[in-house]
Amino acid sequence: MNPCAGSFNWRPYLRKQGFTAAPVSCFKHVALSNCWDSIVENVRVEVRSPDCKGPNCNCTTNPCRYWLATVIKVCGYWGLLRYDGFDKITPKYFNVPDKWVNLCTEPHIHPIGWCAKNGKLLVPPKSIEPKIICWRDFLMEMLPGGRTLPPDFTFRIEEHSHNSIKKGMKLEVVDKNLISVVRSAVVTDVVGGRLHIKYSECGEEEEDEGFWCHERSPLIHPVGWAQIIGHALKASPEYARLSLKKTLYRTFEPDDATWDMFLPVYNPIGNLKFKKKMKLEAIDPLNLSAICVATVTEVLRNNYLMIGIDGMMAANGADCFCYHASSPCIFPVGFCESNGIKLTPPKGYKTEFKWSEYLKKTKSEAAPVDLFQKDIPDHGFKEGMFLEAVDLMEPRLICVAYVTKVVGRLLKIHFDGWEEDYDQWCDCESPDLFPIGWCDVLGYRLEPPRVDGSEEKKKKKTVVKKRKKKALTKRAAGSDDSQMIIDDEIKKNDFEDSKDSFQDNSVVPDDSSSSSYQGKLRGTPRRSLTTITPPSSSNIQEGKQKLNFNKKSTLNSTPVKSIPMDENSSAVPNEQKRLRSKRITYEECPDPELDKFRTRRRRRKQKKSAEMVLEDSSSSSSGVEILD
After folding, report:
1. Is the pLDDT of residue 560 over 70?
2. Matching Gene3D superfamilies, A to Z (predicted)?
């Protein structure tokens, strides 16, 4: 595949002395990562001859002659070729016409024997032909015992491009504007394992250009994941019901992303588990250059956790993020201090931060160290190695980057030419890191480093800066004033919610067309797993009609055994069992608004009764009969 127009070319960097790139074997999710080093290092190949440049030969599609070359150096997917025999001319390295090429995209690189099999000429270049007395003896001396590319080299690269998640498939993905909920979405494009995703249910006023993420990203999940795990879901009630039914009874449609398409998560065996309000350290999902003091705000099923950044959490938990207990992005208390990393204290914390004092002040406990992932693979990353990295604040961009710090399996990635504010902490097995040359292989644009004076590049990256600020301002969205308004709204709807049939988790209604919807969503506190939040106060009655599911809920049946459920959780939460066993009546609803209404109604009745008594007494005195 030809490189994308405007994509950065690695050759100027490759020619720099001391340049190092992360080996392909460091990236487990890319093509040939498990065998690249053994295939490429010091192999001999047949390549287009340097003499094949004249106007009389069709060099672009069918070179007229080939010659032998050796791959003497490898950087990512790039290889440095040296034509055999040129080292016989001069001992000076810089005078040898070596050539950097992308070994996966160069169209005229073939294993030894390809010319003989396809009737092509294998001829030494004219510049070195007189220097060697007998070329046959030279080849017999050089070739035996050497290695070459496997015959199916090209096929292996193409085979890896076949992804399990295809274009047009449906899945669930984190809402980029409200990271505490997930939404249903559709895959609109696939490039080398990277998916372009658009939300399925968008309001008329909601602009959705879509966004990119890898098929191994923790941001995406199979259909029905939110309902099974107990994660907040922004979708129509119909989708919530059907997605749960599909998962429980394995009645997926052909275009549904199913559970077997995703990597399994590790679930520890034992009684030691995370608990609500435990303290830890975590990478801030809205500021990936910072590791912050964090709290477990909620424990979901299957060892998934809702994590909030201390001092930044909105009252409604709108900026809490879902991490699995085995996530490499969460760390035990004291991790940063023991590894020389700056820990970001809670916002407004003025004194020097010390965990012992903070835990005592907040009357909380630290999550046990044994709960965190300790496996550190031999990943091969070292400081100073270059690679291609996704800018996760603007995931459509893949940029020139390098590793600045390695702590166990944790890497700090710096974007070349940009300030440290744009750095990203990520795991060594992150699917958003690629070897150099990956973008060329897939035909994806690689963003160049920023060069001082380049206004266009500054403008592009400024978008990312604004997005970071925008994302961070979400934290302040859950202000006290908005919270009071939303609390009143919730109290009005509590009774209607309790009358609905069982639903496995909270569903945020898809009413994005309302201009006030985002404000309501940010102010709405996380509800019980049994609650369905009506769209708005003006549509309470309409919401009653839409949200009253069939009494024969799918969860009344026995769940499929293969569906992962936490051993301490049942298919029906205790709170929902209570609501199903005891229907709350109008008079029992402890709602202030309804209390006011009942008071006004009682006063009207009393007033009416008093008037009737007066009329009765007056009528009786006049001898007129009063008919009821």
Report:
1. no
2. 2.30.30.140
Place of tokens 């709350």: 584
Number of Cβ within a 10 Å radius of residue 475 = 18
Amino acid at 455: E
C-alpha 431/C-alpha 174 separation (Å) is: 17
Taking every pair of Cα atoms in the chain, the longest distance, rounded to a whole number of angstroms, is 144
Q: What is the distance between the alpha carbons of residues 443 and 446, in angstroms, rounded to a whole number? A: 9
User: Do 305 and 325 meet the contact criterion of CB atoms below 8 Å apart?
Assistant: yes
Tokens of 147: 């290695």
Virtual torsion, Cα 13, 14, 20, 26, nearest 10 deg: 110
DSSP 3: P
- Composition of the chain by helix, strand, coil, percent to 5: 30, 20, 50
> The pTM is what?
0.72
SS3 at position 267: coil
Stated as kind and residue range, the H or E segment containing 287 is strand 287-299
Least confident window among 99-113, 160-174, 176-190, 499-513: 499-513
Q: Do residues 530 and 502 make contact, with C-beta atoms less than 8 angstroms apart?
A: yes
For 178-220, give the DSSP string. Answer: EEEEEEEEEEEEEETTEEEEEESS--TT-----EEEETT-TTE
Per residue in 156-172, pLDDT (tens digit) is: 887 777 889 999 999 99
Asked if residue 321 lies in contact with residue 269, where contact means CB atoms within 8 angstroms, the answer is no
3-state secondary structure of 221: strand
Please spell the DSSP secondary structure of 543-558, one letter per residue. HHHHH---SS-GGGSP
E-state strands within 19-75? 44-48, 66-75
